Amino acid sequence: MPDTRTIRVEALSRVEGEGALHIRLKSGALDEVQLNIYEPPRFFEAFLRGRPLEEVPDITARICGICPVAYQMTSVHALESALGVQITPEIRRMRRLLYCGEWIESHALHMHFLHAPDFLGYDSGIDMAAQHPQEVKRGLRLKKHGNQLLEVLGGRAIHPVNVSVGGFYRAPRRDELAALIPDFEWGLEAAIAATRWVASLPFPDFKRPYEMVSVVHPDEYPLNEGDIGSTAGYTIPVGEYEQRFEEVHVAHSTSLQSQRIDNAAPFFVGPLARVNLCRDRLAPAARRLADELKFETPCWNPYLGIVARGLELVHAYEEALEILRDYRPFQPPRISYQYRAGSGCAATEAPRGLIYHRYRITDTGTIEFAKIVPPTSQNQKQIEDDLRAYLPAILHESDQRVAELAERLVRNYDPCISCSTHFLKVIREER
Amino acid sequence: MSVNGALFVGIGSPHGDDRIGWLVADALEQKPSGLLRIRRAGNPLDLLNWLDDHDCLILCDACQGLSTGPNSDRCPPGTWQRWTWPCADLPVGRIRNSHDLGLVSTLTLAMQLNLLPTTVWLWGIEIADPGPERPLTPGVASAAAPVAAEIAQALSDHQLNSSGLRSAHA
Predict the structure, then answer these.
(1) Where do the domains of chain B lie, and which CATH numbers do they carry?
(2) Within a 13 Å sphere around the CA of B25, how many CA atoms are in the beta-carbon half?
(3) Contact yes or no for A129 and B112 at CB 8 A
């Protein structure tokens, strides 16, 4: 019997980015679990320093090809806070519409192509496609709707270019948005069917005492604006985020990990956190569907995040349709502003969870300081914590099976490792 | 088989030599045959939106690593190779990220979904530098016209074979 046993999964499929999982056993018991993010740091916060604030939305959009809108939205809201800019209700609605597009493309693909194979025993969405062609086709069609909305409103599907501090460079024409309505009407029904489908999947019985955190708003489902709420019972203004949560360096990761400042505890962000905290603010069809599916909230089983994603997919279609049907071109497309020295922060909800930005600007409109906290950085410590709780029960399994099951647990979080600093290599060491 | 429904997709980007798939599309547009619908894709997944009602799919993409054999030197930029799908010797490559599929993965998915026409040809052109804002390598640029001509000839031959005209003339 060798002293050291090593499991290597060279490529964790269906997560965004590259990382490794190191599992160390001592006398047969779990000793340490580390999520090693080895992707090189990307230094976006440093890139921004000294640049005109107008460049921030386009530069931060390059952080991620999946959730560029989240970076753009959070940056413009934070900069507008620093500048004292008040946007119009019309601009605000267009920003929510753009965000709906990103949620639709991201949620549809993750549900149908990346996550569902875990519950049906397939290695990939491609493998699943032979037996579940209609579901895969539906997922791809829904994803296309999201991309189409981003193209019309954002100028292109990946890394949109129409978002500016103060609003948009150009307001869309009514016919451009109206042309999307038939597809979105089909999409709403398809999203409901998709959510019923994922709710019927077999879920592991794994519940944990999470603290879940999301943006909360008294009148609407969280996207662009609100306070920060927690299932622990508190609500704080966004301006107090850094007094409650901190990012820390860990030796095994090039990505910072977030934790609570007071007790170094992890916390959980994402669709499940949002549904747990804001279920009553889902759009009507999504709310009715949650009731129909008997989706109990608060829900503490991370595997059920796929159902929460489905409910949010329905919500995004409903809200998008409402805006598309009522749309009238608006002027001005953006609010002008004067430079002034100051600081501003904002939190919005990316598809995979809360995202926080803070900027300090000079009186000539230059970025002096930037802080960007993506959702996956906030979830990483929670993922490690989940693995510590989950792994002891499966360590009797083969190395390959342990790796598969660990990867599935990680995928509950739809992690975007590229954002936080890419495939998971699992190393199991037994002493 | 009719090839009236032939679709050409040039896959590329505005960056350096990676634009060669689009340049081949440009070159094909200069010689309208009436046989081709020509599209430009920035991402292989775009293909899945365009496969309806086509009975022949022709693809052209940039590639790196072409060689004349397992232990041979790499081919110079501008060298091209043709494959007929499905083909085992096309490398799948590393999946770039969770929300994006490469060309071979996209074709595999399309095959699983029964979306592929019976005839699928791929042309790969060896490139040198796909970097942003990099100029097109002259050797790569010079491949666009001959590759377009080869595609047009292959389609013409295929049409003749499909209609039986070639055997009638033989």
Answers:
(1) 6-169 (3.40.50.1450)
(2) 22
(3) yes
| Cis peptide bond prior to A332, omega within 30° of 0 | yes
Nearest CA-CA distance, residue B114 and chain A, Å: 9
Name the H helices within A155-247.
Answer: 174-178, 181-199, 241-244
Q: What pLDDT band is residue A427 in, cutting at 50, 70 and 90?
A: low
Domain residues for the domain of A383 are: 54-397
Contact B12, B22 (CB under 8 A): yes
Q: Please indicate whether, in this complex, the C-beta atoms of A126 and B108 are within 8 angstroms of each other.
A: yes
Instruction: Give the pLDDT confidence of A255-287 residue by residue, as tens digits.
Output: 788 999 999 999 999 999 999 999 999 999 999
Q: Which residue among A66, A127, A140 places its CB closest to the CB of B48?
A: A140
Q: How far, CA to CA in Å, does A137 sit from each of A68, A106, A130?
A: 24, 15, 11
Residues B85-124: tens digit of each pLDDT: 988 777 655 444 555 678 888 999 999 999 999 999 999 9
Indicate yes or no: CB of A16 within 8 angstroms of CB of B98.
Answer: yes
**ipTM (interface pTM):** 0.76
Is A352 within the bounds of a domain? yes
| Number of folded domains that form chain A | 1
CATH, residue A59: 1.10.645.10
Does any domain span residue A99?
Answer: yes
- Rounded distance between C-alpha atoms, residue B141 and residue A233, angstroms: 63
